Amino acid sequence: MRRAEIEKQDQYMLERQRQFRMAADVVTDAWMAFDEVRGVAVIGSVARPLWREVPRFRELRSAGIKIWHECADLDLALWIDSQKWLGELRPCSRPRLAFSV
Questions:
Q1: Beta-bridge partners for 76
Q2: CA-CA distance, 12 to 22, in Å (whole number)?
Q3: pLDDT digits (tens, 9 = 90+) for 13-43
Q4: 67-78 burial, b if ≥16 CB within 10 A, otherwise e?
Q5: Residue 75 sits in a domain of what CATH number?
Q6: Dihedral of alpha carbons 66, 71, 75, 76, sign
Q7: 67-68 vs 52-53, strand pairing mode
Q8: Distances in Å between the alpha carbon of 77 and those of 43, 74, 82, 95?
């Protein structure tokens, strides 16, 4: 694999993390509009600097080439002081939400 292709993958991974961070800002702002919400934390690979690893992609894996970690989802922790609306949130369970009271 050529160096230009590796650089392209690296840039893609960095851009993907940036997009997830922008989504985290939007979701955090939306959650904070509710009186019951006391805090929101971004956790996981979106919250920290990316690290280099051999990815799952066959061509890179077989060559042992390391690129920036692939952010695949956005993990959030939500602190609430009431469970009043948990029932309404359950149908939206595809984005996994961790609740702490």
A1: 42
A2: 15
A3: 999 999 999 999 999 999 898 888 899 999 9
A4: bbbbbeebbbeb
A5: 3.30.460
A6: positive
A7: antiparallel
A8: 7, 10, 15, 12
Q: How many domains does the chain have?
A: 1
Q: Is 78 helix (H, G, I), strand (E, B) or coil?
A: strand
Q: Which residue has the higher pLDDT, 89 or 47?
A: 47
Q: Mean pLDDT over all residues of the chain? A: 85
- Residue count (the chain): 101
DSSP-based three-state secondary structure for 4: helix
Nearest-angstrom CA–CA distance, 37 and 57:
39
pLDDT band of 100, cuts 50, 70, 90: very low
Which amino acid, residue 101?
A: V
Nearest to 74 by CA among 14, 17, 15: 17
Written as six digits, the tokens of 54 are 């051999």
Read off the pTM.
0.77
* Bridge partners (DSSP) listed for residue 52: 68
